[in-house]
Amino acid sequence: MKIEFDTRVQELKFEVLKAIAKGCFEDNLLERYWKIPEDIVSGPKPTMRCCIYKERAIVQERMKLALGGNKEIDNVIEVIKVACDECPLGGYEVTNRCRGCIARRCLNVCHKNAIHFDEKTHSAIIDKDLCVNCGMCAKACQYNAIQNFLRPCVEACKLKAISMDEDQAAVIDDEKCIQCGACVYQCPFGAIMDKSWMKPVIEDLKKSENGKNYPVYAIVAPAIASQFKDVKLGQVVTALHKLGFSHVVEAALGADMVAYDEARELAEKGFLTSSCCPAFVSFVQKQFPTLKDNISHNLSPMMTIAKWIRQHNPEAKIVFVGPCIAKKKEIQKEEIKHIVNFTLTFEEIQAMLAAREIEPESLEETPLDDASYYGRIFARAGGLTEAVKEALKEQGSSFEAKPISVDGMENLRMVMAKAKSPAREFNFIEGMACNGGCIGGPCSLAHEFKDKMEVEKYGKSAGERTIQEAIKDYQE
């Protein structure tokens, strides 16, 4: 299978995950464990850091996260401290655009006396010891000569959940973090990583013996349609079976169920925010607590289809596969834990396939279940909105939906602020934390514009099936 990476960070992550998966599948992880850093960083010269010993130390920390990480840290995202030391501190700095003007508005607005001027060039200088990064000087400068140079992780986190410790390494505030994973994808040094539960999944797959002892279900997110390049979706399904999954089910079927129930709930309550994206749900609960009662009471598509499977097959092991880190946190919620056993990302599945030397492009196709067009397009922004409108139509409801589809944290903050007003012009908010929706998830194999087109193609392959027909056929 041809493997393409957005960045070398993803490539390094893949090599670590692949090595761990290979050791788990072959039952020799313990004896190979200390050799893995040397295999990945062979030397003799470093390629990314100051020396190969630091590179190997970072690989070793990544291996720990690939095996579940620090059990004392509740967050599913951890900072690799030894890898977080290359970025400049950032903050407001004066650029060479400063003309040394005589208006000196930057000086006038600074209440901390943090700005003075060079005697020769007359350019402004910011005293970092006094500056509190309020940004007033940048707003006042008519030349835009003062810029805020944030660390990539800080800039990526729109919740202000990342700060620096005394060693200037990133620290995540779990009270603010919603596990959206933006920092994981945006950190150019790969110093922030999500924990993995590949090892227990692989153990379950091996014990199951392709369903002979107990079934292992893979619930695949609809975003999978855009992930594996030059490989047909049916071939990916066959590859998952070869990994040991006895059943592969579309999360899109759960999306059909959610759309149908969410449409009914919207008609009953008159105003609703979606519950499909766990990062968005957490965002509303933490940032807009007065609106948390307006969150749909429906479970996410993953949980909805998993609950149905669990009710009909209690002994099943259920694994979700998608692009999302927040899903790893969602399954830990006390009220719904044990419905889904584990979640894996597309990155982890790719590593597992490579570890087993499974090449999907060489396999026959296995069809997926028959979800509707509307369930399958949940993967992209606007999909849920279209599905809810269709469900209202199929239910013969007279309720007039006035939905708004919002993706990306900055956009969500603006819309949620408007939602607090009784004068709002919408009555349903489809909230997606990632730009573009699930196809923009932090653990997607690629982030390309054509991903949306691939999801649309996948949706249309369902034909003219209604949401009701998709639900009825599967449940029967």
Structure commentary:
This protein is α/β, with parallel strands linked by helices. Helices cover 39% and strands 12% of the residues. It has 20 helices and 15 strands. The chain has helices spanning 8-25, 29-32, 36-40, 52-66, 105-109, 136-140, 152-156, 182-186, 198-208, 233-243, 251-269, 278-287, 301-312, 326-330, 346-355, 373-376, 383-394, 409-419, 450-460, 467-475, and strands spanning 77-79, 91-94, 115-117, 124-126, 146-149, 162-164, 170-172, 192-194, 216-220, 247-250, 272-273, 317-322, 342-345, 403-407, 428-432. The strands form six sheets. Strands 10-9-12-13 form a four-stranded parallel sheet, with helices on both faces. The protein is globular, with a radius of gyration of 25 Å. The mean pLDDT is 93.
**Largest sheet: spatial strand order:** 10-9-12-13
What Rg is obtained from the alpha carbons, in whole angstroms?
A: 25 Å
What is the averaged pLDDT score?
93
Helix amount, in percent? 25-40%
Low-confidence stretches: none
> How many helical stretches?
20
Shape: globular
Q: Largest beta sheet, briefly?
A: 4 strands, parallel
Describe the structure using short key phrases.
476 residues, alpha/beta, 4-stranded parallel sheet, 15 strands, globular
What is the element layout, followed by pairings?
Layout: H1 8-25, H2 29-32, H3 36-40, H4 52-66, E1 77-79, E2 91-94, H5 105-109, E3 115-117, E4 124-126, H6 136-140, E5 146-149, H7 152-156, E6 162-164, E7 170-172, H8 182-186, E8 192-194, H9 198-208, E9 216-220, H10 233-243, E10 247-250, H11 251-269, E11 272-273, H12 278-287, H13 301-312, E12 317-322, H14 326-330, E13 342-345, H15 346-355, H16 373-376, H17 383-394, E14 403-407, H18 409-419, E15 428-432, H19 450-460, H20 467-475
Parallel strand pairs: 9-10, 9-12, 11-15, 12-13, 14-15
Antiparallel strand pairs: 1-8, 2-5, 3-4, 6-7
